[in-house]
Structures are given as C-alpha cells and as structure tokens.
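User: Please fill in residues for this 173-position structure.
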C-alpha cells in the first residue's frame, strides 16, 4: 500500500485559520479598548443607557412618568428645530400625582446666552415642575453644572430633563 498522503496542506489551512482568528480577536480588543477609554463615547453610551424615548406621549424613567400631550410635544419639537445649533431651555408646567407628571403648558424663560453646549436663562417660575433644556445630539447625560444648578432651585417634586434627540429624554430628580 502506498502511504503518500500529504497532510501538509491541511496543516497550513489550520494554521491560517488560527492566525486569522487571532488577528480578528486582536482587532476586536483594540476597537473595544478605544470605545471604552474614549471619554466622549463613554459619556454618550452612559447617556443613552440612562435616557428614555417618548412613546405615545409618555416618557418613563424608573418610577417617574412624564406625559407630554401631542400638541405640546409638537411645540417642543418646533422650539428644538428653531434652536438646532444651540441649546435651549423651557419650563414645563405640569400637574403632579405620585410620580406622574402631566404637562399642561410650555413656558419660555428669558434666555441670556445660548451656545452649542450651554444655555443661560432666567429660572423657571414656581409653578413649573420640570426644567427642560436640550443637549447636543446623543449627549444625554447631565453635566455637573446641570445638577448643581438644579439642586439650588428645585422643590420637592421638581424634575430636570434633558432633550438629546427629537424623541429621547433623560430625567433627573
């Protein structure tokens, strides 16, 4: 019998597959390390995880529900569109009942300055339970300045909201 079977091509194919798999794993590790160490991307991921999309006039975040009627939501989208290149701020006058906020009116405070990533305005009136401002696209996390400003002006049932997409909001209590 002739034992002239050549196993060399099979071994070469196996070695090539192993090298390709190792290179693919290395590339995945490099990409993940970039994504997980880039502060901008981490903030965006964190904000997207924390935020909620509006669904049938309702934004839910934990035990908080904010109901924005369609006509007021349309008005909010119009304000966002008019301020597409800068942040804006509005105050939402709402009824409150056990974690549920039903928005009744949008109040526009005096705006002193507006920039791409900052808005400075007069405070919301006492009857406005929700202080809402926009952030750049997909920057849904609250800044330290946002939180500090809110803590100085909040009452027991007030909320701060960030609108970071047409249909995405983050809520802070």
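Assistant: Residues filled in for all 173 positions:
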């Amino acid at each position: 019998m002739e034992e002239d079977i050549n196993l060399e091509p099979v071994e070469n194919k196996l070695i090539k597959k192993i090298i390709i798999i190792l290179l693919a794993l290395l590339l995945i590790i490099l990409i993940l390390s970039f994504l997980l160490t880039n502060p901008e991307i981490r903030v965006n991921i964190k904000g997207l995880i924390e935020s909620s999309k509006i669904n049938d006039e309702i934004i839910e975040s934990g035990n908080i529900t904010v109901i924005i009627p369609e006509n007021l939501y349309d008005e909010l989208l119009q304000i966002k569109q008019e301020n597409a290149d800068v942040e804006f701020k509005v105050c939402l006058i709402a009824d409150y009942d056990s974690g549920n906020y039903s928005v009744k009116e949008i109040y526009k405070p005096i705006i002193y300055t507006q920039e791409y990533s900052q808005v400075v305005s007069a405070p919301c009136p006492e009857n406005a339970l929700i202080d809402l401002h926009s952030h750049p696209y997909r920057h849904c996390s609250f800044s330290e300045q946002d939180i500090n400003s809110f803590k100085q002006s909040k009452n027991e049932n007030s909320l701060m909201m960030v609108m970071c997409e047409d249909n995405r909001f983050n809520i802070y209590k």
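For context: The first helix runs from residue 8 to 37.
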